[in-house]
Amino acid sequence: MLFSGYAYSIELYTGQENEEKKRPVSEPNLGATANVVVRLARLIPQNMNHRLYFDNYYTSIPLLVYLSKQGIYSLGTVRKKQNSKLQTTR
Predict the structure, then answer these.
(1) What are the PiggyBac transposable element-derived protein domain coordinates in residue numbering (predicted)?
(2) 3-class DSSP string for 4-23
(3) Which of 7, 16, 74, 85 has the fewest CB atoms within 10 Å, measured from its CB?
(4) Which of 75, 35, 33 is nearest to 52 (CA)?
């Protein structure tokens, strides 16, 4: 996770991070990759206009909605076929 352009927090994958018992009840299960972002975002103060950027491997509409409800602005890249239900401009 980057904060002001620098790594703010990292997580090394060990294969156990997405187990139900490891996630607080207050956090939704948004899928393996989005759950990584949710875990790392726990460290970001809410409602302080912080911005979080990530690539299309982590981006999903439910993740963006969740972060918005937490008061965290977010921006993620998307692939054209990945979110085919989104409107496109040509």
Answers:
(1) 4-83
(2) CCEECCCCCCCCCCCCHHHC
(3) 85
(4) 75
Q: Are 13 and 40 in contact (CB under 8 A)?
A: no
d(CA 51, CA 84): 25
Paired strand residues for 76: 54
Distance CA 48, CA 58 (A): 22
Closest CA to 58 of 42, 45, 73, 77: 77
78, two tokens: 């998307």
- Per-residue model confidence as pLDDT tens digits over 39-51: 889 888 888 888 8
Retrieve residue 85's tokens: 């239900």
pTM equals 0.75
